[in-house]
Amino acid sequence: MDDGAPAVSLSETAREKLRQVVAKIERLEEEKKEVAAQIKEVYGEAKSMGYDTKALRAVVRLRKQDRQEREEQSILDTYLLALGEIEPLT
Amino acid sequence: MDDGAPAVSLSETAREKLRQVVAKIERLEEEKKEVAAQIKEVYGEAKSMGYDTKALRAVVRLRKQDRQEREEQSILDTYLLALGEIEPLT
Amino acid sequence: MDDGAPAVSLSETAREKLRQVVAKIERLEEEKKEVAAQIKEVYGEAKSMGYDTKALRAVVRLRKQDRQEREEQSILDTYLLALGEIEPLT
Amino acid sequence: MDDGAPAVSLSETAREKLRQVVAKIERLEEEKKEVAAQIKEVYGEAKSMGYDTKALRAVVRLRKQDRQEREEQSILDTYLLALGEIEPLT
DNA sequence: ACCTCGCTGTCAATGC
DNA sequence: GCATTGACAGCGAGGT
User: Fold this and answer.
1) How many CA atoms lie within 13 A of D27 on its CB side?
2) Which of D15, D69, D76 to mutate to test the interface with C (most CBs of C within 10 A)?
3) pLDDT tens, D26-48?
4) Is B73 left (phi over 0), alpha (psi -120 to 50) or beta?
5) Cβ A22–B83 below 8 Å, yes or no?
6) Torsion, Cα of B40, B44, B46, B48 (10° steps)
7) In chain A, whose CA is at the least distance from the CA of C72?
8) What angle do CA B7, B10, B13 make, to 5 degrees?
9) Which among A19, A77, A87, C18 has the fewest CB atoms less than 10 Å away?
10) Predicted local confidence at residue D37, as pLDDT
11) Quick one: which of A29, B86, A53 has its CA closest to C75?
12) Which protein residue has its CA closest to C1' of F3?
């Protein structure tokens, strides 16, 4: 049963703090939404310029993957180097 | 470096087992696809009978939500109350 | 303003028909859900048999792609080439 | 057959334009990522202050839903009424 | 360490 | 036809 009554009460101070937290999150989510809209816009413009959107997305995706793989590799190298498993380029 | 050569080999038995697993998954995905097609079909028939498809989908969606939403409500109420959500949104 | 009152009324016959349509859709969606659960189950079993689930999913995905794909790849190559991401065949 | 050779070539001008488009998208995605990280951070801080993160997320989600849902309700009510999901205003 | 859940990004379908 | 919206699969974080 849920009668809608909260199980606990919050002090006014706590409520105020909570409000701030939620407000901050919502503000940031709004920002994120705007940036997402801008990205969409760029794809839209590209499309109306004759670009193949799907391929364009694929390019961006692949480049991201490559970046990640390289990143992982370099951390890995750092570790291996630290462990003396590989030699630095002399 | 990845020369494309597998790091390990599978016995014939293991290969056979793998084949079976993949086959089973693919068979189930096929089934799922068929059911999805049937659903689409029903909406199609409904539409050609004059139903407002969008509204129909909304009904189904809402009924599903209603079935779900019946959890965590208590703690939630505390927060919502604190945020003044019990009052109309300004 | 939405006072919750429907804009139009439906005859009893129409209501009955509507009920049937919704029921049929919900039944099919239930089926679909079950099949999805079975797929998940297969992956689960595979995992507990020592399979690398992520790799397994990749296999299934690639096989599906192979079945479909053999398009757009050339546009993609064009883009990647333009960006210097891949090398032309010399 | 896909031998990896692009079907078409791009002029230098076109290549430059493509580069710009991709660069712009990547820059915006970077921004989005940063904002997402900030959001995550806020949740993290909230948690270390003793908030129930799950509930907090639920609050944010519900408030978003509330802001949205205020559409199509009229036709919808007709259908829901027919299905006995809601009662007519007596 | 595993598992669940939520989020994100992609793809297809529908309406304008 | 394009734009919007919804569905789905994949990934990652967080909790147990």
Assistant:
1) 8
2) D15
3) 999 999 999 999 999 999 999 99
4) alpha
5) yes
6) 180
7) A55
8) 175
9) A87
10) 95
11) A53
12) A44
